Amino acid sequence: MATSLPDTLSAAAADLANAGAAPISRETACRLLQSDDAMLPSLLRAAQLARARFKPGVVTYSRKVFIPLTNLCRDYCGYCTFRRDPGEPGAHTMSPDEVMEVVRAGERMGCTEALFSLGDKPEMLFPEMRKTLRRFGVKSTLHYLEAMCEKVLRESTLLPHPNPGLLSAEWLERLSRVAPSIGLMLETTSARLLAKGAASVSVHDNAPDKAPAKRLRVIEDAGRHKIPFTTGILIGIGETLEERVDSLLAIRDLHERYGHIQEVIVQNFRAKSGTPMAHCPEPGRAEMLRTLAVARLLMPQMNIQAPPNLSGPSDGLDNGMHYADLLDGGINDWGGVSPLTPDFINPENPWPHLQDLRQRTEAKGFKLRQRLPVYPEFTEQAAAHSDLLAERLGAAADSAGYAQAKRVA
Predict the structure, then answer these.
(1) Rounded distance, CA 269 to CA 292, Å?
(2) pLDDT, position 57
């Protein structure tokens, strides 16, 4: 016999009463995600207690520059405005001089991270990209990324953090020698969203690199090679609440096996004009906070991050949140925030000013600390991959593994 909603909510209340230091179960997580707004304050309190047991009193961020190495991409996701085809307005692959110009400006503003974002293997689809790569003297987009990460590492004080899409085990190893951490969003374990017509609009049906099994393989390979890794979920793209929990559990399980996932991002979908998903509903304040709290209770000993720039008005839509509210859900990190470059993936959502970020974080009772792209507890793991990385990390980190204070020009 099916369980009624009142029974589910009653069970959820009992789950909260029993929540402690141990991770909650899948069944409990599903019940809590289905709980109503009346239960939200109790859920948030439980998440905040879990965070206090993990890292009390401190919230971190990484001061970064955002480097969109190329926005050509062979995938067509239903929510993305970053990607371009060759010849489209805004299509661009940065030259080495353009990369280093941004890096130098970031140095002057106290940045310690060079975030590389790029389309997935565009040369496999576009002859124009193959021509560009030949002009740069490299075989592939990944070879070019590797060269730029090494250039940044050798010629600046910034540390690279690449988000290159799917990677083989060999490429994970290669990039781990020139970058202390690597990122790939899992987004969801729902293979259902790959099928045409599976959701009300196109999500991943024309994006072969978004297959969950392929992305999980990359995250697992990174674990086998002890590479500090950033991943996370994207909520509100057509997944069910149960699929949302399963995605978080897949991440937790890989971390429990390998101990390499340095942070888990919980990112909310924002509708963008001109995309197939432009008119899809966005997660509201209660849904986002509920998901963050459940993530914290599922992963009480892991770093959880939510992007501050994705809460608030966007493209004329308001999801009813201010980014400071996200702290109530149990996060302990803001992710990368740039004083210089926009979020090229979400250009309609500007970063908060760092002074405002500090003031609002302190108003919630936390000290804001600047970290490197690799978290303090993962620095030793990162340094083991190359002498160059070990040297650069030693110069960039303070005695606790956070970013050394820099004089801003």
Answers:
(1) 14
(2) 97
State both tokens at 331.
């996060």
Would you say residue 247 has pLDDT above 80? Answer: yes
- Per-residue pLDDT tens digits for 7-45: 555 666 667 666 667 999 999 999 999 999 999 999 999
DSSP-based helix, strand, coil % in the chain, nearest 5:
45, 15, 40
> Taking the CA of residue 282 as centre, how many other CA atoms within 13 Å lie in the half-sphere pointing to its CB?
22
Strand 58-70, strand 333-337: pairing: parallel
Let me know: does 314 contact 285? Beta carbons within 8 Å.
no
Give the span between the Cα atoms of 133 and 110, in whole angstroms.
Answer: 31
Q: Is residue 242 part of a domain?
A: yes
Residue whose pair of structure tokens reads 């996200």 in the numeric block:
326
At 259, list the tokens.
Answer: 């101990």
pLDDT digits (tens, 9 = 90+) for 284-311: 999 999 999 999 999 999 999 999 999 9
Q: Contact at 8 Å (CB) between 128 and 86? A: yes
Look-up: residue for tokens 């592939």?
A: 140
Question: Number of structural domains, the chain?
Answer: 1
pLDDT the model gives residue 199: 54
CATH code: domain of residue 126 = 3.20.20.70
> Which domain covers residue 130, as residue numbers?
48-396
Domain presence at residue 277: yes
Measured between alpha carbons, how far is 250 from 216 in angstroms, rounded to an integer?
Answer: 8
- Asked, for residue 232, whether it belongs to a domain, the answer is yes
* 10-19, 111-120, 126-135, 165-174: least confidently modelled range: 10-19
Partners of 58 in the β-ladder: 367
